């Protein structure tokens, strides 16, 4: 349930109180956090950080010399939902807020409860231990204070060890990191020592704050003078790299063509061969041994269509499954589309009659069994044959 997000409902009385506190924070938040943070701060513009980042990247593209630099753009996964309340409390005390003020803020944060609706029934409420509510006037400012923890770690650990920062001109100011709401850009030397230290900082920040870096959306950019060996070493240490590029770009390009035309099998094999060569090559035209063990997952449908394979696709949207439902005269199971897997199964069994229950159960089992056979044994089966197996199992049960 990686995409689970709670709905935050705040009553009017709380919003009035939170807005009054937020107005007080707005006037002093700029004095409590580093200049690298510009979002939601009075007198600062997030566009200033954008312009500065573009200037630094432009400089790195043209940089010459022996020392290579890298730029790491980090994306925090579920930034608001993962913030630990204990961390919020400690960071405010560390910054210097009065204990009474901190207690008042924490009462606003912690007086929340959640209810879960399962199959239309409301379960007992429970109390969380982390998370900032979307729509709460206090949440943006509290998230800035949490970001100050990462900013302080970067200043203490990176400056002098990982990088003294980069500057666009000789007399210009140095910048080691920039913040953009729930994302961050870090500048440093492209070395294995720097990459390891950077990972240690992220690990320490995660253990304290609960924040998790989404490496699928994170990007590493190198200066022009960084060697191929240093680039490969840093990418392997930080994670992501070629795998993220392959999934996000190379495997996505043929999707648009495959949605309109049935590509020949020979062409599909050539595309897979091209991706494999790109993954394992060491340089331009050079194939090397990858000394780092890795497993590349493939979430595409096993039957050759371009869609990602999830539970709904397996049981309802796959072409083979669609043909099986048609042969079983159960095409109506595809009518209700905008639902989760659990909601769809509940709807199917409520709408079906007694005679269809056995067929539905055997069909779901046979679809999953045939999918696993194709995955692990390479045995493919058509939708018509799948429907015949379901009918045979149903007849054997009734006998």
Automatic annotation (TrEMBL):
Query: Sorted alphabetically, which Pfam families does this protein's record hold?
Result: RVT_1 (PF00078)
Q: Which PROSITE patterns does the entry mention?
A: RT_POL (PS50878)
Cross-referenced InterPro entries: DNA/RNA_pol_sf, Retrotransposon-Effector_Assoc, RT_dom
Using the record's annotation, list all stretches that form the Reverse transcriptase domain: 1-250
Query: Which SUPFAM superfamilies does UniProt cross-reference here?
Result: DNA/RNA polymerases
How far does the signal peptide extend, from start to end residue? none
Q: Which PANTHER family match?
A: NON-LTR RETROLELEMENT REVERSE TRANSCRIPTASE-LIKE PROTEIN-RELATED, RNA-DIRECTED DNA POLYMERASE
Spell out the protein name for this chain: Reverse transcriptase domain-containing protein
Species this protein is from: Gossypium stocksii
Taxonomy, top ranks, is: Eukaryota, Viridiplantae, Streptophyta, Embryophyta, Tracheophyta
